[in-house]
Design a protein that fits this description.
The chain is an alpha+beta fold. It folds into three domains: 109 residues, Butyryl-Coa Dehydrogenase, subunit A, domain 1 (Orthogonal Bundle), CATH 1.10.540.10; 98 residues, Beta Barrel (Butyryl-CoA Dehydrogenase, subunit A, domain 2), CATH 2.40.110.10; 145 residues, Butyryl-CoA Dehydrogenase, subunit A, domain 3, CATH 1.20.140.10. The two termini are 33 Å apart. Helix 1 packs parallel to helix 4 and helix 8 packs antiparallel against helix 9.
């Protein structure tokens, strides 16, 4: 399988890494996290100028039409820099609109605004108590005139308060799951914003007869929601690879400068072996993350599901192993907010818990057809 990126893809990734290295250092990131908004409009405008906001948007809507592999490169760079702006949430929202294949002029206009950096999106995947069950949905949508009225609540909506529109799964009167678009300023929509332990933002959304426009009807709502979630997982895995790379580099740099018994601890063979193990975990996770990106567009839905869950499992395992080793090798410094290692581990921990943890995706992988074949003959 060919994991070679084109020259154009490499140039885009290089430009993004260069910008982040020059304009989004660790201190800048910490200042943004500490701000009241928790995100930077200035950085978002810069992302738009780089073409980053246009990358996941179809060309027909003014975007660059980037596929999962293009997004993988972008998310790796953002993960290494611990970017806290709502890029993941907006990209997943853009994919939701693309999959909806809506001909509604308002949806096309919204995608064009996303491409230009003028609008942000969020998908409200989770409900209170759902425990990773994507289809455990109690929110309801009732027909009202030309649209719907939506009621219910959604928990841990990533960058929900920073979005101008939400894609919200809810049940129609017949019980089927459909996808709806709710505007940020809609009457009957309440937002509770808060910071998560990784420095990012999330929100609880509460709807009480909020006006909504249906994007995907009940005939394919559940299937589309699962595919949107798989896309989100592919991007999270890519972000995690970037964070793992950064954590490996930070640990190696620290052990080269930290001395014990008059010599850098990086020269101790037992610590070298531990750092090699960290690298092995990272490379195994990288391979499966790349495979998931390639399989995302596969016509066989089970092939996609299998690759996505395998990547999420291996990334989650690597996140825990590499993170714990990095903190131990940093010593007491690894527990402080003054070094990036602690923040990288926090972000990796949240990625593991988003859209299903290791146990959840191990079970999903095992439940898919052809996981285990036994020929009695």
């Amino acid at each position: 399988m060919d994991f070679t990126f084109s020259e154009e893809q490499q140039q885009f990734a290089d430009a993004l890494r260069r910008y982040l290295g020059q304009r989004y250092g660790f201190e800048t990131r910490q200042a943004i996290v500490a701000s009241r908004e928790g995100v930077s409009d200035e950085q978002w405008r810069a992302f738009a100028e780089l073409g980053l906001t246009a990358l996941p948007v179809p060309e027909a809507s003014g975007g660059l039409g980037g596929g999962a592999l293009d997004m993988l490169l972008a998310m790796q760079a953002l993960g290494a820099a611990l970017v806290v702006e709502p890029y993941w949430a907006t990209a997943v929202g853009a994919e939701a609109l693309r999959l909806a294949a809506s001909e509604h002029q308002a949806d096309r206009a919204l995608l064009a605004r996303v491409a230009g950096g003028e609008a942000r999106l969020a998908v409200a995947f989770d409900e209170p108590g759902a425990r990773y069950e994507l289809l455990a949905i109690d929110s309801r949508a009732e027909p009202a005139g030309d649209g719907f009225r939506l009621s219910g609540s959604k928990a841990l909506v990533r960058h929900g308060a920073q979005a101008q529109a939400w894609i919200v799964p809810a049940r129609q009167p017949d019980g089927a799951i459909a996808l709806f678009l709710v505007e940020r300023d809609a009457a009957g929509a309440d937002v509770e914003d808060y910071r998560t332990i990784d420095g990012q933002r999330a929100a609880t959304l509460r709807f009480s007869n909020a006006p909504a426009r249906r994007l995907v009807d009940g005939s394919r709502g559940a299937e589309t929601l699962e595919r949107i979630a798989d896309y989100g997982i592919v991007l999270l895995c890519a972000e995690a690879i970037g964070a793992l790379d950064a954590l490996n580099r930070a640990t190696l740099d620290y052990t080269r400068t930290r001395e014990q018994f008059g010599t850098p601890i990086a020269r101790f063979q037992v610590l070298q072996h531990r750092m090699v193990d960290m690298l092995i975990h990272t490379e195994q996770a990288r391979s499966l993350a790349y495979l998931a990106a390639l399989r995302y567009a596969d016509d066989d839905a089970n092939q996609r599901r299998r690759a996505v869950s395998a990547a999420k499992v291996r990334v989650g395992q690597a996140a825990r192993f590499v993170g714990q080793q990095a903190i131990q090798l940093h010593g007491g410094m690894g527990m402080t907010n003054e070094v990036a290692a602690a923040h990288l581990f926090k972000r990796l921990s949240i990625i593991d818990l988003t859209l299903g943890d290791v146990d959840h995706h191990t079970a999903r992988f095992a439940s898919l057809p052809d996981f285990f074949e036994y020929d009695a003959a």
